[in-house]
Amino acid sequence: MRSTWLVVPVLVLVLGVGAAASEGTWPLVIDPANPEHQALFEPVFGTPWEVVTDPEGEPAFYMGTQLANIPTDTYDRTRYVLLTDEKLLNPRLDLKSLGGQEGSGNPSHFIIFAWQDYRNFYYIYPAESVETRVARVVDGVHQTLYRHGEIIWVRDRDWYQDLTLEVLEEDGQRKVNTYVNGRLAMSYTFQPGEEPPAGRVGIGMWNLAHSAYIKDIVLTETTK
Q1: What is the Cα–Cα distance from 106 to 155, expressed in whole angstroms?
Q2: Which neighbouring-strand residues pair with 97?
Q3: Neighbours of 160 (CB within 10 A)
Q4: Cα–Cα distance for residue pair 124/82, rounded to 1 Å
Q5: Count of beta carbons in the 10 Å neighbourhood of residue 129
Q6: How do residues 187-209 score in pLDDT, each as one tens digit?
Q7: How many angstroms separate the most distant Cα atoms in the chain?
Q8: Strands (DSSP E) found in 2-77
Q9: Buried b vs exposed e over 36-58: b needs ≥16 C-beta within 10 Å?
Q10: Are 198 and 89 in contact (CB under 8 A)?
Q11: Phi, psi of 20 (to 5 degrees)
Q12: Which of 66, 67, 44 is nearest to 201 (CA)?
């Protein structure tokens, strides 16, 4: 297993098991083996999501290859689970991902933020594809805000990769950063009128035969 430490200023009050879920205080440090933490996730339209033992012998969430039944009146290419019912303006989500043995592993991820409903949300798309991007869905219509044009994710079934979403305000502007294995891999400053509202956060993949183990999930709000 390979991991990289990344230090970013965040709110640092960590509560006991179940307290964060009930009181809406941060960060949420998710234990896949804890039933109260399992209940924090809401699979959307049948997205597969369960707790299993990963190849390292530890509990992890698993997104399998079962397809979700996404309605056609929105962006239907991704399946995802939502984390808590809290709406955050400047979320930071950290996680580790390892490709599953079934399907094609984890060639990409979607991290959802500013989710209002299934027809209105934003996402980052770190991928082993030049289609890496920052995008949003408005009234069911997909809009690419920034096409990065470079591969920033590597499919791997042998070691966990670190992935971080960070939405923040800097010098009076809203921006979103994507970190992969501790490195700033993609950054975008929102243009006037594009700024994401407070919303829910989620974890997703293409609505295809992909799979991944996901653990070490931490959700908080940035202080910047």
Answers
A1: 5
A2: 161, 214
A3: 24
A4: 15
A5: 16
A6: 999 999 999 999 999 999 999 99
A7: 47
A8: 28-29, 41-43, 50-53, 59-63
A9: ebbebbebbeebbbebeebeeee
A10: yes
A11: -65, -40
A12: 44
The structure tokens 């509560």 sit at: 15
Structural domains in the chain?
A: 31-221 (2.60.120.560)
CA distance 25 to 131: 35
Cis ω for the linkage preceding 48 (within 30 of 0): no
pLDDT in tens, 154-176: 999 999 999 999 999 999 999 99
Confidence of residue 26 (pLDDT cuts 50, 70, 90): confident
Predicted pLDDT at 84: 87
Taking only the tens place, the pLDDT of each residue in 28-77 is: 999 999 999 999 999 999 999 999 999 999 999 999 999 999 999 999 99
Tokens 């979700």 locate to 68
C-alpha angle with apex 131: 129 to 134, nearest 5 degrees? 125
Neighbour-count burial of 97, counting CB atoms closer than 10 A to its CB (0-12 exposed, 13-18 middle, 19+ buried) = buried
